[in-house]
Design a protein that fits this description.
Helix content: 40-55%
Number of helices: 6
Order of helices and strands: HEHEHHEHH
Strand content: 5-15%
Strand order of the largest sheet: 1-2-3
Protein name: Transposase
Number of domains: 2
Structural class: mainly alpha
Shape: elongated
InterPro entries: Transp_IS110-like_N, Transpos_IS110
Radius of gyration: 30 Å
Organism: Streptomyces milbemycinicus
């Protein structure tokens, strides 16, 4: 698992070698964080597209097995023998702003999805059970309301108690 300490652990582990080059599978995807931490530390980082180690694994003897060790070996082989390695450089401010903008867009899309889902649930409520202009506080007050659907019909009001008349002449 890659976290904020992974690059430091990797750097300490490889101190015994004087010449170090790093190859990260998918440096623009899942390996982005690690690749950027290494590049920001001034290390040489090669981006290995994820399709290439997969091909190398399939071509290797017993290529049907997928393990972390075998994956690391195939990533290293591809990076070592590739004629035109794509190097990863530290991101500049415009790239960071692009990432923040993408994150903002994702949050806005998620908010819109949640609002649309809430709208669909409120649409199933009987008329007059929910306010028309919702705020976060008003939506939180709706926790007790339940939609009327075929699976969950609207509860009937309690019956009035009937007095029992004894049968007689």
């Amino acid at each position: 698992m890659v976290n904020s300490g992974t690059a430091g652990q990797l750097m300490r582990w490889c101190e015994k070698w004087s010449e170090r080059r790093f190859a990260v599978e998918g440096a623009k995807g899942l390996g982005h964080s690690l690749a950027q931490q290494l590049a920001a530390a001034g290390k040489y980082v090669a981006d290995v597209p994820s399709t290439l180690p997969t091909r190398a694994r399939l071509l290797a003897a017993g290529g049907d097995r997928k393990t972390d060790v075998a994956d690391a070996l195939h990533v290293a082989q591809v990076a070592l023998f590739r004629r035109d390695p794509r190097t990863v450089g530290p991101e500049d401010q415009s790239m960071i702003l692009r990432l923040l903008t993408e994150q903002h867009d994702d949050l806005v899309n998620e908010r819109t999805r949640i609002i649309n889902r809430l709208h669909a649930v409120l649409r199933d409520l009987p008329p007059g059970d929910a306010p028309t202009r919702l705020s976060v506080e008003k939506a939180a007050d709706l926790k007790g309301l339940r939609p009327t659907t075929a699976a969950r019909p609207r509860p009937r009001p309690p019956r009035r108690p009937t007095t029992h008349r004894p049968a007689g002449p």
